[in-house]
């Protein structure tokens, strides 16, 4: 499979959060943080903004990505957290490109905003091809604790990884983390612009007839307004024009978009509705689904609690509002696909979802990507989510199977409100080595297996 990948690759600095240490660092800003927690800004323009976002995410056990709007705050993050962070490939596209390469794609062409030596060292060497740069030759370690001098030109995103059960006191409150997740603080001028490399664009046009698919992400990094007075609309339209051109030149090109956590509900809604009729599928998590549901004036109750029936009803309603297409919701406990048409047979759709879930589970337990046979062997020993199985069964109990329904391996295929529904529970590693990028791993593995089955 030959696959184009746009648009966001960066370097993640993964920092394991110690709640008590964070509370101590935040003490001198306690009054400002307390006020901001009451009404979270959704972006970071000050140090109290950062702590408000982190503590809110930890208290709720939810993931979030907030954009850093002040360069001085970015410097403060580097000075305080770069040392001791684990550096690895970051950005939805960067992570997904590596998954595709490691799992057997024949050629993966990424758009790289800043092709520095450090950035390139984190790309897989198996199938990555950089236009005008050729095959990746640098032997990346897949992750290293930072030892280099901080270069402000490197696109580094700080990922604050917190564990379930973490408990600490801030001011007079005890914060107890209900489940593991991460809070991301991102300062990234190039990817904020949805930067499209000229060499990538030229290569894509010259070879579009050879391509099997395109895996696209990075829209969530857009800003409502830029210093030059422009808005996200111009950047979005530039991307939409590129995708439309690819589709015209190759009508068999299968395009999947991985959505991401937006800083603005309105911007998320606009981007979703612009992309949904154009691409073949969009991947989101429960947080992002709740944001879209809110803007569509749909019932959001139960979504963040990962209630499968609530997520199903919301996803189907969203598809009905936004037009024909497919949305794929990946949560910690299960994956749910809702589509207005059958892009593959039922058995094959279930196979692709199981493949994605298995690859992500093996990655969570081992902390690395491997040959797919090894990943699937590891996954076979990892139990399926008990809660996920219960939630999938709840859907099965509510929707009769009919003549074309399938129920097996704790998974289901159904037709509901003129949409095709597939749901599978995830596999949960008891002591995960990696928690960052699991959604991207699931989506890219599903995407690759879909391309193979469509061929």
From TrEMBL:
Alphabetically sorted, this entry's keywords are: Cytoplasm, Glycolysis, Kinase, Magnesium, Metal-binding, Transferase
Report the EC number(s), separated by commas if there are several.
2.7.1.147
Q: Which Gene3D superfamilies match?
A: 3.30.1110.20, 3.40.1190.20
Single GO molecular function: metal ion binding
- State whether keyword Lyase applies: no
Any one Gene Ontology BP term: glycolytic process
- Highest taxon in the source lineage: Archaea
**Pfam families given for it?**
ADP_PFK_GK
Which InterPro entries does this chain map to? ADP_PFK/GK, Ribokinase-like
Cross-referenced SUPFAM superfamilies = Ribokinase-like (SSF53613)
PANTHER family in the cross-refs: ADP-DEPENDENT GLUCOKINASE (PTHR21208)
Please report the name of this protein according to its UniProt entry.
ADP-dependent glucokinase
Organism from which the protein derives: Methanolobus halotolerans
